[in-house]
Amino acid sequence: MTEKKEILLKIRDLRIEGYSDEKWIEIVHGVDLTLRRGEVMGLIGESGAGKSTIGLAAMGFARDGCRISGGSVEFDGLELTTTAEEDLRALRGNRIAYVAQSAAASFNPAHKLIDQHTEAPVYYRIRKRMEAQEDAMELYERLRLPNPREIGFRYPHQVSGGQLQRAMTAMAMACRPDLIIFDEPTTALDVTTQIEVLAAIRDIVDQFNTAAIYITHDLAVVAQMADTIKVLLKGNEVEEAPTAEMLENPKEEYTKSLWAVRSFKRPQKPRPTSEEPVVSVQNVDAAYGPVKVLDDVSFDVYSGMTVAVVGESGSGKSTTARVITGLLPPTTGRVLFKGEELPPNYRSRTKDQLRQAQMIYQMADTALNPKVQIHEIIGRPAQFYGGLKGAALKSRIDELLDLIELEPAKYFHRYPPELSGGQKQRIGIARALAAEPTFIICDEVTSALDQLVAEGILKLLDRLQKELNLAYMFITHDLATVRSIADEVVVMKQGKVVEQGPKDVMFTPPHHPYTDLLLSSVPEMDPNWLTTLLEERGVDNIGEAADK
Amino acid sequence: MDYFVLGYYTLLIGASCLAAYYQQRPIFMLLFSITLVSFVMGIIGGKEALWTTTVVAASIGLAAGTSYGFREFLINISGRETQKMLRTAPLTASFGMFIIFTYAIMGIFAPVIAPYGEAEVIGGAFDPPDENMLLGADQLGRDMFSRIVYGARNTVGLALMATGAAFVMGAMAGMLAAVKGGWFDQLMGRTADVIMSVPSLIFALLLLSIFGTNLTVLVVIVAVIYAPRVFRLTRAVAGNVVVMDYIEAAKLRGEGTWYLIRKEILPNSTAPLIAEFGLEFCFVFLLLAGLSFLGLGIQPPTADWGSMVRENATLISFGEITPLIPAAAIALLTVAVNFVVDWMLYRSSGLKT
Question: ABC transporter domain spans which residues (chain A) (predicted)?
């Protein structure tokens, strides 16, 4: 971090344009960036801030439909914006490497990991194939992958997501590049897996003294990784400062709002004593074919309350939702709705039973039909269940749009692809509300959204709950969300309920060991958090702890 | 060296210089290579070769000009969304649309356009073209031009009906199979396999000789033969749509199968289906023409391009191009439809920038 180190990457007044609606629109408006050897810079901002675009421009690359329209990108004395494509290709993968968000999508599923790993060094004649394989195994070991000598000979689908992301990092290291660009490498991972990957990345970047640009929207993560942080907003730089300074003393309003985003918290409600639960899941077992995915799951949801179901991916959270909605009939056990047993299959449920329980999906993109206008999406449940028509239907749609804080006149005739992620999610909420339900399942509703937008959605859901006395089942892997809106928490692991209870009890020790692991894995804003945590756990058994 | 040759070279060289001056590299390269080729052709083939080149170039230019004009015309008369779409259309696509438009006019107003009836004998067999008969007479002395015009109505109309029927059957079955799944899917899939495993022309001949040749039977048979292809495509496309969350949401709402198909699946699979419609139309058209050529399709004296090729085939040995005219009509429509389909495929594949 000393100022004497040689400058590796110098970006000056970088302007990038994107092609849309038959004209070029500037999306990055003159950003400067200076990166020295061995330094890690965090780029942070909401989606659409231009983080990834700038990251790619650091390799002299612009996505299809984008072009670098001005400014300079100087890598180790070489001006990339004017360099010929062949020379750039010789640089990429060799001296500058890129680690993409989804390792699963970036590996070629038809080749073994090690073959993909050795491709670049062999192509650039840095190493012979056998040497490169040997080197790959060594890197796998340094990244603490299990069975480093064998794991390379597996295909991408045969290893887990966290391992794949680490193998991808190893691959980026194959030519010992001067610069690595990490584009949200842990965003798609569970908190417990995220730690392994973060620790591995940090170690290897330290060991080889590689410079890195770390792109993320998660502040707590970037605090662990970066030496300096640059905050971006809509293609403009907001501010840049060393990590510690940035965390303690952000200067700009926007940065402060990013920092304060998790401040939303609502008081916890006690469970009503006399009332019957709205939904009661009783001793449910469920299976996909011969594979058992739920094992004796029981919990209750009371009206006006939020039950958060947390756990890693594959823990059976979403499957529980499928059992409640009737998409997956349970093998044993039953689901009660206001004391009445629901038919296990949704096809045999009555229209009213279907109406009472609604669902909001994680991916608003796939949850809304892209070819249907907003008023029809929202209006259909009202028309279908309530039999509303003509003017009554229109006023109901307007009312619903008002409820989700979208201007009726403006959005009535729009199509979903014309809306932003947060607006789409609001439409998803409106569609659920249109049925006038008493119980809503929220399946990871905020995990695909930026933090500021996610907070808006959470506030909206909370307001609606108060106004309409709704019961929520909130499926999430994000414990910060749980902290902000849950009344009760159910922790699931491998199809079993590990622990459940009111939020305040769940968040105060002592915990079940798994709850403890989950809680301690949530990144905190403290830049020393990862180091401390690794020391506490003992570096070598991170993997074990996660597998337990 | 006469004025024509002089003008020919002056125009080419002048135009290439202009193109070069305005930095239009591809146009310059094209024009100048034509100039160079013309030098050689002029020496070998003389003035006639240059005339041919001029005529070919002029007709290509005319076609391009017509396409350009037709596209501008369409842009002017259509709504905003369609306008945006049409602006991105290449000239080949608007050429295709122009040809299809012309054929449609020809088919719809056949009795008005054609000077004689399709079965009317007005001259001697194989009479050469004169002021009464634009393209001469066929083997029975009927006016060739009138029969071509009526042929547009009969052949294209029949092909359109057969393709439409194939689409209604195939697409419905495909979407139902995708929604229902299970045994219904299996049943439909295997039935489609059985039909597709028999070569289509042989199968058509077989069925036609069993059920006899009349128009209804012809349409139904061709539709049945082509429906499985549509079924397979629709099922694949719909299969990608039914796994979406909005389908799950609709199912959980308690919506019926018909609503799912009509409102949720169909709007999301129209693009590939329209593209497929164009392709299938060409195949059906060629199959029908082939059947007519073999004598099992549309029966005389109804004018039909396929049988017209066969009936006048003998003329080919006398160096007449008459039998080639209906063949060219078939070829032109096929090419035109494919131009339009190419453009639609390009759009639906998301390659547009």
Answer: 9-259, 279-519
